Amino acid sequence: MFKFLLNRKLKKLRKAYNLSRNSDDRKFFCKAPFGALRFHRNGGVQVCCHHIDYHFLKDFSLKSIWFGKEMQTLRKQMLFYEIPDSCNFCSSLFFQGDFGNVAALSFDYLELNKNGYPVLMDFSLSNTCNLACVMCDASLSSRIQKERNYEPEEKFVYDINFLKQLDEFIPFLKYAVFTGGEPFLINIYYSLWERMIQLNPEIIINVTTNGTIFNQKVVDILNSGRFNITVSIDSFDLQTYSKIRKGAILGETLKNIEEFERICKERGTKFSITVCPMRINVKEIPEIIKKCNEKQWIFNYNIVLKPWNLALWSLPVSELHDIINFYEKFIFDNNNEVSQQNIQKFNNLLNLLKVWHNKIINLNQSVPNKYQLEVLRQDICKIIDIKVSDSAKTKIIKGVLDSIPDILITDNLKKYIIGLDDYFVKFEFSNYDQETILDHFIIVAFNFL
Questions:
Q1: Where are the beta strands (DSSP E) in 211-317?
Q2: Which of 228, 237, 251, 360 is paired with 162 by a 20 to 30 Å CA distance?
């Protein structure tokens, strides 16, 4: 009976989910496993940035990963909506009915290759960065890594062998995505861009930058290919911007934005901005939307889950409720395609806040007592300690678990960690500082509830 009801619920969700899609190709939950690959700083290969199941280039060739049995299994799961735990970032929102924030939908635009090769590659090869943004961590910023005096035990190097392996794939790509760190400070990216433009001049290259790097080297490469530029800025207010983007100067960034926008217009490519909605800038988001509509900039936002004390989901329920009411009062001019898209993004953010609001209410009602919490923390600590197999890490593990908010310590988190690959857990504790590990576990804990 329970299985019948579960299947019935899935059918209803699937029908509603597909009605929300712009794509005519709706036969599977997510297109990413059929057309996308992402390369992580640790040498791991995923299908997207939210997918937490890695295949490592130090163990397998790129071709064997893409055409291998495990990837075929993932594709079958997507076809039957058997969404694996490794895709929990999307499945958690899907099962809550918050389809507008399901990242899987962002791959619906992909037109898949008939020969089976990917059409999209996403590169996040280095954490080299000149800023220490408050919502960032050592895994994404070399400056933060340096300030925390932390050096990873393992460091994968993307070398000439990797570039050679890409040559077989590049001619079939339609899109490439580059993030960091700061992409315009990552040397191997210039080699990749030059090779892509040489082998596939029509490829669309999307770069997300913090907007602080603009020089002749950047101009030359942008003028040689089809580059869409996204600038992450978070605020147009001097004080707020300085609090968030540590190391950046707003005036200089705004000048660079003008230059990036100019080049995109001249070359017929897209310019957009991305914002991280947090406690610091949450009241500024509607004004940012208005500015984007006036300038005809495409607006995007990242879902910020960490650091938990800056994330909106961790606000007291009453404050989150006030923000929802604040957003609902705004009316935007809706007179062109860009503004329509931007307003839809704002509505998606508003809906996400409502989902979080309800989720936090439910979590607060089911927080275990102190004794149960302590038992759960100890159990999780023991499980991780066994997987890591390194007594020196015990102190770090205990520190991380002690710092996770009480409402996130659940049986579900325990079950999730039991199911994690031992190598993956060991990698987390070997390659990141304690604050970064805490951030990652909080994301996992919140998404898995």
A1: 226-232, 271-275, 298-301
A2: 228
Eight-state DSSP code of residue 372 = H
Torsional sign, CA 287, 291, 105, 67: negative
Confidence band, pLDDT 50/70/90 cuts, at residue 6: low
The string over 66-86, giving b where at least 16 C-beta atoms fall within 10 Å of a residue's C-beta and e elsewhere, is beeeebeebbebbeebebeeb
In tens, the pLDDT along 335-348 reads 899 999 999 999 99
Q: In what order do the strands lie in the sheet with 226-232?
A: 55-56, 44-46, 36-39, 120-123, 175-178, 204-209, 226-232, 271-275, 298-301
Name the helix (H) or strand (E) containing 55: strand 55-56
DSSP character at residue 105? G
* pLDDT tens column, 362-390: 888 887 888 889 999 899 888 888 888 77
In the chain, the percentage of residues whose pLDDT exceeds 90 is 66
pLDDT digit string, tens, across residues 272-282: 999 999 999 99
Return the bridge partners of 56, or none. 44
- Rounded to whole angstroms, the Cα distance separating 71 from 65 reads 7
Using CA atoms, how far apart are residues 68 and 423, in angstroms rounded to an integer? 20
